[in-house]
Amino acid sequence: MCTGGLHHISMAKVDIDEHTDLAIEYGVSAVPTVIAMRGGDVIDQFVGIKDEDQLDSFVQKLIG
Hints:
Elements (H helix, E strand, L loop, with lengths): L19 H6 L7 E6 L2 E7 L4 H12 L1
Antiparallel strand pairs: 1-2
């Protein structure tokens, strides 16, 4: 996924059962939910399972 380039992406997994405050703050009502943030601001998100091509497209859009 996303080979090449000089981009840096960090990912974190959050257990929404243990961190309900974050689930409420970011409107997470289903899993999996992926939220892309830059500088503390939500810039994009999706809910549901994606295949590798869809994930690659999502990341490419973010770093584009």
